[in-house]
From TrEMBL:
Residues 347-381, 547-577 form a coiled coil. This is GTPase HflX. GTPase that associates with the 50S ribosomal subunit and may have a role during protein synthesis or ribosome biogenesis. It comes from the Bacteria. CDD domains: HflX. Belongs to the TRAFAC class OBG-HflX-like GTPase superfamily. HflX GTPase family. GO terms for molecular function: GTP binding; GTPase activity; metal ion binding; ribosome binding. Residues 388-565 form the Hflx-type G domain. Monomer. Associates with the 50S ribosomal subunit. It comes from Deinococcus puniceus. Keywords: Coiled coil, Cytoplasm, GTP-binding, Magnesium, Metal-binding, Nucleotide-binding. InterPro entries: G_HFLX_dom, GTP-bd, GTP-bd_M, GTPase_HflX, GTPase_HflX_N, GTPase_HflX_N_sf, P-loop_NTPase. It is found in: Cytoplasm. The keyword Nucleotide-binding applies.
């Protein structure tokens, strides 16, 4: 006896037998069902007072029988090609009557069924009789003017159930899906992504979403939709809840997106659950940032740091995730190629089996220690020269590298450092010699940009790079004063500096991109900075693009360096006096 799935508890053997006999039914290929099968289903559903579902493949064979509604009916593991439908449709009987339910329709959509049909059951002479048959099928992706993801056909009496040409409908739809896919192939080399930022009432939720879009763009995604989802309380499994995920899946279908990017870090189980519910590729903010770092990593140290951060992030996600492991391995590749969320620096190590991850982690840590030691040597050398050092810090994309170029007249290769409208363009600290009137030669160091909620794996991996900031005599904090949310970015950078223990270092602020904003905004920012950090920290409007404000910036830096040198002198003086007292 073939196995009847679903809730069969309490059924009599004869009832089970009749249900199992459904497996022997055959219908004409390309039809929804046959009048005989409809009668059969209606009688059985009436008899057991539960919904009965059969799954029928394109050759007209019954491939599964379940005592369950459409949503709970067990479907075979779907091996959907992107461009086709599931290859079977579901026919089921509603003992309580009624047309297609919301659950029926969302199952149709989420499982990409060829069609979904419900037979209303009517009682007559103490028996179940098939009433109207309701059928729905999917609409082509991106259909304009279509209200829903499906089209519900006018109901027909059960004796006309075999009149609808499902076969023709399915081929037309698949042809349309394939055509859309061909156009997509021809026009896109970027992954199309939908962004979701959860808003739990943070004041900067909007900015976070905008920033997520910038991150996605930098990682090479084409953002086709982004939305802020307000949730005071998060659902443990899916964060936003099943209904919202369904809505997003539908949107992805119509916008032809394959990637769903979340603005917060997802736990390993969450990512898996959301992936299972939507069938989309899921990437979180941390993964996105790691990805960008992987793309931009140049030089031994940055590559080691990025790989270390990636492995630390991956490790808990690989445990007990067989399916994901193979996908990570499959998608990985060179830094330039590969899909978003799977890129590794240089030769990717993400294929590593779990056993070897720990080995690789300790190897990387050791290597980084060595690099850090060599760097320490270099630092000592430099401090002996007693050339003042200015560290350029600030939020990513603030214009740090551009300003360094402008400052050191390094607009021509090969002295020019890379400046780009991409987040985290700079990962490796780069030093240049500059000259400041009244001070003489100074060293300016450009470094990796900051971002709010910097993933902790990255902070740890880049610790030594970040610590080098502390070697400076003066910090030059570059702020993009032209983009919205300058204040939150300023605060985010200060918070990170504070975490690193550099909050007390003498600082000069450059209100950069002054060319792209108005004087009122600049004055307002200056006022705000004065209120938060006091007049010890001057702020100068600059434009690294137009060389505006560079003279004033030099003067402010000269003042700050002078002050540091005077303080050092005074400190040394004090030490000497103390020593003299003791003699
Ligand atoms: N309008 C305007 N754009 C600027 C200015 N300075 C820099 N930019 C632009 O801002 C973008 C980022 O510049 P970068 O110098 O790469 O910024 P960064 O702070 O080094 O960024 P990361 O290294 O990614 O952290 C580039 O597209 C620059 O052309 C400016 O004064 N005005
Ligand atoms: Mg830079």
């Amino acid at each position: 006896m073939d196995k009847v799935l679903g809730n069969t508890s309490g059924l009599r053997p004869a009832q089970l037998k009749s249900l199992s006999n459904l497996y022997r039914r055959r219908i004409e290929p390309g039809r929804v069902g046959s009048p005989e099968l409809a009668r059969n289903l209606a009688e059985l559903a009436f008899d057991i007072r539960r919904e009965v579902s059969v799954l029928i493949d394109r050759r007209g064979r019954v491939i599964s029988v379940s005592v369950a509604d459409a949503k709970a009916a067990e479907l075979p593991e779907l091996r959907m090609g992107e461009n086709r439908l599931a290859g079977f449709h579901l026919l089921h009987a509603h003992p309580k009557g009624g047309g297609l339910s919301k659950g029926d329709l969302s199952t149709l959509f989420l499982k990409r069924l060829d069609a979904m049909s419900a037979i209303e059951v009517r009682a007559a002479n103490g028996e179940g009789q098939p009433g109207l048959v309701h059928t729905a099928h999917l609409t082509p992706p991106g259909t304009v003017g279509e209200e829903e993801d499906w089209r519900i056909l006018p109901p027909v009496p059960s004796f006309q159930i075999d009149e609808f040409d499902l076969g023709a409908q399915v081929s037309a739809l698949e042809e349309e899906i394939a055509r859309a896919a061909r156009t997509r192939q021809a026009t896109k080399d970027r992954e199309r992504a939908i962004l979701v930022q959860i808003d739990q009432g943070e004041f900067d939720a909007d900015e976070r979403l905008t920033e997520l879009a910038e991150l996605a763009r930098t990682a090479g995604a084409d953002v086709v939709h982004k939305e802020l989802v307000f949730r005071r309380n998060l659902k443990p499994g899916t964060l936003v809840g099943a209904g919202k995920l369904e809505e997003l899946t539908s949107r992805a279908y119509h916008l032809d997106a394959e990637l769903l990017i979340f603005g917060q870090e997802l736990g390993p189980a969450q990512a898996r659950e959301i992936e299972a519910a939507t069938g989309l590729k899921i990437v979180d903010r941390t993964q996105l940032i790691l990805d960008i770092f992987a793309l931009h990593a140049q030089g031994v140290e940055s590559r080691l740091q990025v790989e270390l951060a990636q492995l630390r992030y991956m490790k808990p996600r690989l445990l007990g995730a067989g399916a994901q492991l193979s996908r990570i391995g499959g998608g990985g590749g060179s830094a330039a190629g590969g899909a978003i969320g799977t890129r590794g620096p240089g030769e990717t190590k993400l294929e590593l089996d779990r056993r070897r991850i720990n080995d690789r982690l300790s190897f990387l840590e050791k290597q980084l220690e060595n690099v850090a030691m060599r760097r320490e040597e270099r630092r000592k050398q430099r401090s002996r020269n007693e050339v003042p050092v200015v560290s350029i810090v600030g939020y990513t994309n603030a214009g740090k590298s551009t300003l360094l170029n402008a400052f050191t007249h390094a607009t021509d290769e090969p002295r020019r450092v890379l400046a780009e409208n991409k987040l985290f363009a700079t990962l490796r600290p780069t030093s240049r010699q500059g000259f400041i009137e009244g001070i003489g030669p100074v060293v300016l160091t450009d470094t990796v940009g900051f971002i709010r909620d910097l993933p902790k794996d990255l902070t740890r991996a880049f610790r030594s790079t970040l610590e080098e900031i502390g070697d400076a005599d003066v910090l030059l904090h570059v702020l993009d004063a032209a983009s919205p949310g300058a204040d939150t970015r300023f605060d985010a950078v200060n918070r990170i500096l504070e975490d690193l223990g550099f909050r007390d270092m003498p600082t000069v602020v450059a209100l950069n991109k002054a060319d792209a904003t108005d004087e009122d905004t600049l004055r307002r920012e200056q006022g705000r900075i004065l209120d938060t950090v006091g007049e010890e920290t001057p702020s100068i409007p600059t434009s690294a693009l137009n060389n505006r404000g560079l003279t004033e910036l030099r003067e402010a830096l000269a003042d700050a360096i002078n002050r540091v040198q005077r303080e050092e002198l005074a400190a040394r003086e004090e030490v000497r006096e103390r020593a003299a007292e003791w003699q």
